Structure prediction request, 435 residues.
Amino acid sequence: MAEHQKSGVVCQVAGERRHFSEEFCKILLTNLYGESVMEKKSSYDVCIVGGLGHVGLPLGISFADSGKKVVLYDINQKAIDTVSRGKMPFVEAGAEEVLKKVLGNTLFISSDKQVISQSHFLVIVIGTPVDEHLTPRFSIFEKFMDEIIGLIRDDQHIILRSTVFPGTTEKIKRYLESNNKLARVSFCPERIAQGKAMEELRKLPQIISSFDEASLKEAKDLFLFLTDEILFLSPIEAELAKLFTNVWRYIQFAISNQFYQITTQQGLDFYRIYEAITYKYPRAQSFPSAGFAAGPCLFKDTMQLAAYSNNSFFLGHAAMLINEGLPNTIVQRLKEKYSLKDKTVGILGMAFKANNDDPRESLSFKLRKLLQIEAKRVFCSDVYMQGDEFVSPTDLVENADVIILATPHKEYADLDTKGKVVVDVWNFYGKGGLF
Prediction:
């Protein structure tokens, strides 16, 4: 069967099943009805499902700024109210200025899922989470597709954007076919660093993947509005490329954190060794410093890759134990040196990464739970977010006996911590990581 025929339709003609190309069907329907019912005009070029989140909103703003008519579909009313006022609901450098420019012109917001059927490209930013047993949960995707299947048109193009378990793109394609839908399906993984999306969407090459040349071309033409460089992979290759990227970073962090634990346990300063290794030594320039490796992707994607490899990905499991175990290492080390039950401990920074307001999967909260068992009292502070029992950074420094810099926000650089026990895993203050 020719490649272009795979996206066509099968009909019964004179008792015989015949396969017609999609192009032939368009011509036939146009001759019969005067317009192609397979190319129903869309109200929007792009609909982003989950469009007000960290992945969807910068993407939608960027497409809208490039002249595409974009609708952001989301059911988070608080985020809808915020973005409708031209305000970003989270920290994203350079996004708010562009948002104000495109809002109401080429960018629109809706909580009505009917906009799904009114758009040509349907970009889905729902990822595959893992459950309490560290097993991927595809059921979320299945439930979502069941909810919108009646809104899908044959001439639409569905693009999966977030990390998915390998094989998900093909599974979605089969699901659509089983429901007699001809919509195209592609996987085009996001590659941005949170907080730098507006820059990196324009700067980084875009990976796209699909099942036929027509779909690849259509996806390529869409993302050429953002970047000049396009890389082509098969869907399974693109899914693994996304996982490999995040898992590689997670393992790198685990190596540094393991070295940090080894040196600290021996009463040595990891950063004296680290700085000697990395100083003008080209083969060590990718060696990261120690620190909390957290967030919504790294841990989850490592566990997805482990599940995909039939739980034989021992390197990934080891990385998980090291990174997730760093808060416990800090608490145990403090217990060895100080009477924690008589100490007030302050945690500076509760977001999962520096200069950001995202608390998802932050190890600062794990650290707080451990300290609430061991310490006399625990204070928390973050300059980008608020929460229960949060205090200002100055109040935290004043009242805490032990200060743990969990998230090195730039605003903490000028804090006066003299006379305090300071745990600085990141070497943010340049005094080493020993405590």
Notes: The chain has 14 helices and 14 strands. The two ends are 68 Å apart (CA to CA). Confidence is low (pLDDT under 50) at residues 1-8, 27-39.
